[in-house]
Amino acid sequence: MKKILLTSSTHVLGLRIAKILADKFEIIACTSDPLPDFMKANYVQIPKGLNPTFSHEMLKLALDHNCEYILPLQLAEIESLSESTMLFDEYGITVICPAKADLEVLDILPNPTKDMPLSLIVDNHDLLSGQPVEVAVNGLGVMSDSGMEFLLAIAR
Predict the structure, then answer these.
(1) Could you say which of 14, 32, 39, 135 is the most buried, measured as most Cβ atoms within 10 Å of its Cβ?
(2) Pairwise CA distance, residues 128 & 119, whole Å
């Protein structure tokens, strides 16, 4: 089973996507939020996405855990990692987020409600449904009914 490093795992969206991905991936649950002692065994502590060393620390963590994917859910994490995707690619790690240029034009949907079906797009393929998609952007989000538009889902 492939491994995915999931940030913001203590947020509602993080918990939701972890439940959806549980049968498809081994999940390394991460958070930058402070944790009470009883929760520390279940989560890996990571820095905030605004931290200048965030990308390098995420690379080290992904390599330490042999992760094939990283799914950032906070906007600051996505912005930071979108600038470093080529670095991760060199190590065989796919960061599931839009490219920096795409991020600037995408509509963002904070904390989509549970009745909104999520799509996890990687290279024109929805990892959740197993179906090809027309949208040429990577990330977690909600597809329009037409299948031609994508709203980037973030945890807030």
Answers:
(1) 14
(2) 6
Taking the model in full, what pTM does it have? Answer: 0.95
What the chain holds in terms of domains, given with CATH numbers, is 3-154 (3.40.50.20)
Please provide the DSSP assignment of 133-145 as one string: -S----EEEEE-T
Q: What is the dihedral sign for C-alpha 125, 100, 7, 65?
A: positive
Helices (H), the chain: 12-21, 54-64, 75-82, 85-90, 100-103
Q: What is the pLDDT of residue 40?
A: 87
Instruction: Let me know: does 144 contact 150? Beta carbons within 8 Å.
Output: yes
To the nearest whole percent, how much of the chain has pLDDT over 90? 86
Residue 125 has a pLDDT of: 95
Residue at 84: amino acid letter: S
For residue 149, what pLDDT is reported? 87
- Report how far residue 43's alpha carbon sits from residue 48's, in angstroms, rounded to the nearest whole number: 15
Burial class from Cβ neighbours inside 10 Å (0-12, 13-18, 19+) for residue 37 reads: exposed
